[in-house]
Amino acid sequence: MLRFAKYTFVLLFGLASCDKGFEEMNTNPNASTKPNVDYLFSQSILKGNYVYDRAYFYTSYITCGNFVQHFATAKELAGAGSGDKYGVHDQYQSFYFRYTYTNVLTTLKELDKAATAPEFVNKRAAATIWKVMLIQRITDLYGDVPYSQANSGGTEAIFLPKYDAQSDIYAGMLKELDDAIKAFNPAQPKFGKADFLYEGDIDKWKKFAYSLMLRIAMRLQKRDEPKAKEWALKAIQGGVILTAADQAVVKYSNGPQVYNNNPVAFELVSQDYVQGANGVNNTEFGKFSKTFIDALQSRNDPRLSVVSVVWNGAVPDTTSTAQKGLPNGTNGKPANFNTFSEPNPATILQYAAPLIVLSAAETNFLLTEAIVRTWTAGNAADTYKTGVETALKNWALFGAAGVIAPARITAYSTANALNTAGTLDAQLNQIHTQFWIASLLDEQEAYANWRRTGYPVLVPVNFTGNATGGTIPRRIPYPVPEQGINKKNYDDAVIRQGADNLITRIWWDKL
After folding, report:
1. Contact, 326 vs 74, CB < 8 A?
2. Distance from C-alpha of 45 to C-alpha of 495, rounded to nearest angstrom
3. Rounded to the nearest 5°, which phi and psi values hold at 396?
4. How far is CA 5 from CA 11, 13, 19, in A?
5. Residue of 446, 498, 496, 491 lying closest to 472 (CA atoms)
6. CA pair distance 86, 222, nearest whole angstrom
7. Cβ distance 42 to 123 under 8 Å?
């Protein structure tokens, strides 16, 4: 017995001795013990701009871009043609919800938790503004979504967040923007090169925030016009983006990593317009929509030869008269598929192309609307002209193939001048048709703005078996797993908002 006790003591002593320094030995000396706030912000911008997985392809291109008839897809209703033909497809339509919450917003939550010290005030403000834009995209797609409790699992152990009413989300986003703008302090450190939008420039971040505020305010127009006017004026007086110098643009390069590539080009090339397809072997049978090409041709729009090509064998033809859009609702790949227009590889499909996150064209068009609604003073014709010309000039950011001669820009803006003597509806039609043309590639915003304004007037398709009765969808459904994983909060949202389908209108879209 004594011998056993002796051995036990030796064993325990030995174990205790082995434990000494065990934690230090098992700590990775190369791992960071404190999150790098700059790195997290850079990552959030890249992730927020659709860098990973299929975020742009599924949500912007296949879904919103086909709903709003910038693009057309000849594939079947149950597959890649779901956006073109108004079908339900959980993989495509729920992707942005799942991707943004679990990737981008999680990263921003980590940043928020790490950047609590006073010297992080400017970095927190910029991150808040960026977060608001992402939340705005999500709620505009789905309606009521997690907001106040979103991504709170690690901080508050809330793993099944409630879905906030969109009216509350909109009020919250406006307050967050206002608070972030007020929080900026030029005396404190800024992001610098980690900020791929503005390199920490506080004045430009404020303009970006005020421009988002204007966008959000205009969304309220159908539901609460006095409130929309109040916040629109606050944004305009604060100072929105009105020139190309202040636009939110992320620059990309052709390598060496995928992260360095323009995500729009990368997704479109890898998923549909594959190199060497030459307009014949497009993976998802995608093309530009007839609606879009006709709109540019009817206006003699100089952007047509910049954005679009028709393939003659292996040669891309940019001649305006050669362009022809594919009708939405086309069932199956037509025999003359190669004769239809698709994105220009010298501009849109360049991996080194920039990504315009928020343009001066958009803010000038929204400002024009505020003027013609008599919410604010200003010269509507001049502001509208600036919006049109900025939209044309922006293609020069894509390189030599995107440059439009100044004389052609002036001729176009003169020929398409705003008819200030027309009715309010007629002027809104002009403004938002140009908004629709200018927002090519920013498909989520094109879709949201079309739902609010109704312009341009789009003719829906009524493909056999579609899920809307032949009307253009007004939202996209929640992810199917939410019906089981977060059932109570999902059910509460459906009761409050309406059936979880393609035709239920979200709060700001209800008449």
Report:
1. yes
2. 34
3. -65, -20
4. 10, 12, 21
5. 446
6. 25
7. no
Within a 10 A sphere around the Cβ of 157, how many other Cβ atoms?
7
Q: Is 61 helix (H, G, I), strand (E, B) or coil?
A: helix
- By CB atoms closer than 10 A (0-12, 13-18, 19+), residue 307 is buried
Name the packing angle between helices 380-393 and 406-415 (round to 10°): 140
Cβ proximity of 390 and 364 under 8 Å = yes
Two tokens, residue 144: 């009521």
Q: Give me the helices (H) in 116-156, please.
A: 121-142, 153-156
My answer on whether omega of the bond before 456 falls inside 30° of 0, hence cis, is yes
C-alpha 248, offset from chain centre: 12
Residue 17 has pLDDT above 60, yes or no: no
**Structure-token pair, residue 232:** 């629109």
Per residue in 119-165, pLDDT (tens digit) is 999 999 999 999 999 999 999 999 999 999 999 988 888 999 999 99
For the chain, how far is it from start to end, CA to CA, in angstroms?
88
Of 246, 280, 199, 267, the closest CA to residue 357 belongs to 246
| Nearby residues of 232 by Cβ (< 8 Å), 6 or more positions away | 214, 217, 218, 366, 370, 375, 376
Report strand pairing: 355-358 vs 286-288. unpaired
Average pLDDT over residues 408-420: 98
Identify whether the C-beta of residue 192 lies closer than 8 Å to the C-beta of residue 200: yes
Average pLDDT value for the chain: 93
Is-contact 340 288, C-beta < 8 A? Answer: yes
| Chain segment 315-355, per-residue pLDDT in tens | 999 999 999 999 999 999 999 999 999 999 999 999 999 99
In 3D space, the residue among 86, 91, 89, 93 whose CA is nearest the CA of residue 465 turns out to be 86
d(CA 490, CA 146): 10
Asked whether the bond before 256 is cis by omega within 30 degrees of 0, the reply is yes
